[in-house]
Amino acid sequence: MKSLLAFLFACILTAPASAETVLIRGGRVVTEGAAGTLDHGDVLIVDGRIAAVAANIAAPSGARIIDATGKWVTPGAFAAMSEVGLAEIGGSGAPNDANVTGSLVGAAADAGRAFNPMVTAIPITRIEGVTRAAIASDATASMFGGRGALVSMSGLPDSVFRRRAFMVVELGETGGQRVGGSRAASWPAFEAALRDAREYPERYRRGQGGAVLNEIDAAALAPFARGQGTFLVHIESATDIRELLRVKRANPQLHFIIHGGAEAWLVADELHRADVPVLIDPLVDLPDHFERRGARLDNAALLQRAGVRVAIAPGPGAVD
User: Fold this and answer.
1) Is residue 319 domain-resident?
2) Which terminus of the chain has fewer CB atoms gathered within 10 Å of its CB, N or C?
3) 106 shares its domain with 51
4) How many degrees, rounded to 5, is the angle at CA 107 between CA 275 and CA 318?
């Protein structure tokens, strides 16, 4: 198997410190643009930015040459959902900021403030060609997992480049277990939380408090409930997906991305009409839970064929 050259974005991430000129020469370059894949392409990086992608680029004076012959040169991979930077090596006894326990904070949890660019996994992840990630914690006592962030694998102090990028929500089987023990409770609780957040801060200033949210969580949820951010919702079954789409129709200002969606192929046309994307774990192709009875290997292909926007991500709770 041909090796995958992760030099391209590794160079981009580290070059600002050295401000050098680098020419990656002779690799099979995936441009992801109109040029397609160059079988014998070059990439010129100047002061941490791509200056040219083409065949037979003349080496500038003083440039460092990297021979990529026989290797692939690709843009850096993006980890669509990850806990990297929130926890150290599993089982080591080191602090783990990926899980939020207790009832004080749910929606207000802020993964960007816990991200540590110095953890052991960051350089290892970068070596594997992953240069950016969406990270989130999980508030195990709430249906809201808190606010996720977008981060780079540079290892530098300013690695968090977008804070509070999305709000994690657990519905379906897990959400039902966390709220009242049933979906019959979790869906009304979700809608009540949206109302609490939309009425923040007025009802809290009047001393009323929220129906289901404390003031801290209402403040965090408010922008998302008003359509100023995206909800990343973990659901698996076609029934739960249809229920989410019903909430979407009643609240057209809301933005949803489904995480999981093992049975999403069953409602592909409805997802396409609602323009709701899905993050899918392609390894989830067996009915290992009752909410995944319709899981199948070609889920992503069927969704894409229907016009649904699809990305690949590890399933909720997966260790990456």
Assistant:
1) no
2) N
3) no
4) 70
pLDDT at 130: 94
Same domain? 280 vs 246: yes
pLDDT of residue 94: 64
- Give the tokens for residue 27: 């690799």
Give the per-residue pLDDT at 7. Answer: 44
Same domain, 44 and 95: no
- The model carries a pTM of 0.87
For 307, what's the count of Cα atoms within 13 Å in the CB-facing half-sphere? 7
- Predicted confidence at residue 315, as pLDDT, reads 78
- In contact, 285 and 260? CB cutoff 8 Å: no
Task: Give dist(CA 141, CA 154) in Å, integer.
Answer: 33
pLDDT at 91: 64
Residue 76 contacts residue 69 (beta carbons within 8 Å): no
pLDDT of the residue at 229: 97
DSSP assignment of 253-289 equals: T-EEEEEE-TTGGGGHHHHHHHT--EEE-TT--S--S
Q: Does 320 fall in a domain?
A: no
Residue 127: which CATH number? 3.20.20.140
pLDDT score at 320: 52
| Whether residue 302 sits in one domain with residue 211 | yes
pLDDT at 125: 93
Two tokens, residue 213? 């949210």
Taking CA atoms, 240 is separated from 151, 174, 187, 248, 258, in Å, by 30, 12, 10, 12, 10
Does residue 146 lie within any of the structural domains?
yes
Helix/strand number for the chain, H first, E second? 10, 16
Do both 124 and 223 map to the same domain? yes
Taking 50 as the pLDDT cut, the residues of the chain under it are: 1-17, 319
Domain boundary among 75, 98, 126: 75
Which residues are registered as beta bridge partners of 54?
Answer: 42
> How many domains does the structure of the chain reveal?
2
71 and 82 part of one domain: no
